[in-house]
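Self-study notes.
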Amino acid sequence: MSNKRKLLDEIDFYLVTDSGLSKNGTLSDVEKAVAAGCIIIQYREKSVSTKDMIFEARQIKEICGDTTIFLVNDRVDVARAVDADGVHIGQDDMPIDIARELLGQDRIIGLTVHNVEEAQEAERSGADYVGLSPIFNTSTKKDAGDGIGTQSIRDVKDAIKIPVVAIGGINKQNAESVVLGGADSLVAISAIVCSDDVQKETTDFIDLIRKARSQS
């Protein structure tokens, strides 16, 4: 596998899959998002067996090819089984150093953080990027807590050198404020997977992000 860490410097829109919300199915969502130019895909699946996860993850990896980073949420075992580009883990999941030992130095590891202190610790521990959450109130993740606001993005961005991905309650109406707040990339789950045209919605977000960057 070629090292895709360099692609982290190019990310704008970041897709997290959600089979429970998807109108067209996870594989279709990934295919359309990649076709639109999405550079990073996180496969998040909580409701199927490990066997079925591996089967689907292999298909997603094939769709992502050489142009798109493919990460597995939480499941280091599944990531290893399908030779994914890496994982995204949470504060209560496997420690970064152990995940790194299992996956290897060339794999990408992202960590969910909620404040400056967690972000700094993530960087010290060897995370390749942080997912700052939740920026706004969200119904997609029931235990996400209250939104921490866009000022938190700037605070975290100023405190660390690795990329900051913003997630939580982001839509077309507030995405510009997220980018202007300093986010390197953003996640909008329901705005994408609940739509009738995933490719168009992804393209719209990418265009919005790049336009906001040009104004910052």
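Second protein, same conventions, sequence then structure:
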Amino acid sequence: MIKPILLTLLYLTLTLDVNARQKHFINSGTIEFERTANMFALVKKKVTKNTQDIKPYYERYLTSEPQFRKLKSTLFFNSSKSLYVPVPPERGLWHYYDTPMANQLNTVFSDFRGGNSVVQKEFYERTYLVKDQMRKIKWKITEEKRVIAGFRCRRANGLMLDSIYVVAFYTDEIHIPGGPESFNGLPGMILGVSVPHENVTWFATKVTEAPVIEAQLAVPVKGKVVNNKQLFEEIWKAVANYGDYAMVMVKGLLL
């Protein structure tokens, strides 16, 4: 009986070894993302006890505009860094409907080896160049899995900026700890993100394996140079007079 058992174990070991050798890992390429914002929920947040004059515009939005706003972006990456670039939208939002969470404000350069990032952030005719450490997110990996853009992904639940709950799906077939915007820190590339309480998601629609030249990973250089603490102070000064809606704006601008 011992000999058949040993043969079975040997067979399983060889099979696992062959599968491991056959598994292909991507370390350079581009990822196309689609960001979806639930505008019904976002515009509703603009209606507060201090901004009841916005309510008629919110009600008009419900009957005249689509519920979801979809925006495109591209992530260029290699084994040591990435550059996330938003694609300009085909049309903007009327100011009564406009809200930071509905827009793509960031061009994000990430240096995985150094643990640093440079974020070019644009809002309300202001441009900042945020130079600091890569964002820290507290992750807890789960057993839930799904397929995104043809890649097997695993779910992780996270907490960022102290109080924002985030769900991410990453693949270890792209063994790089990056993702869209400033999402990072998992043992593989993040291909899907949901921030449920902020009504926005990012999901990869296409992954292309290809060499990425240095020009595609150029560090942003435009804007007033600040760190994360200074950015928060600048944002708070800009939105402090928005009453109950100020914190909603802060989350959208910091995300």
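Instructor comment on the second fold: The mean pLDDT is 90.
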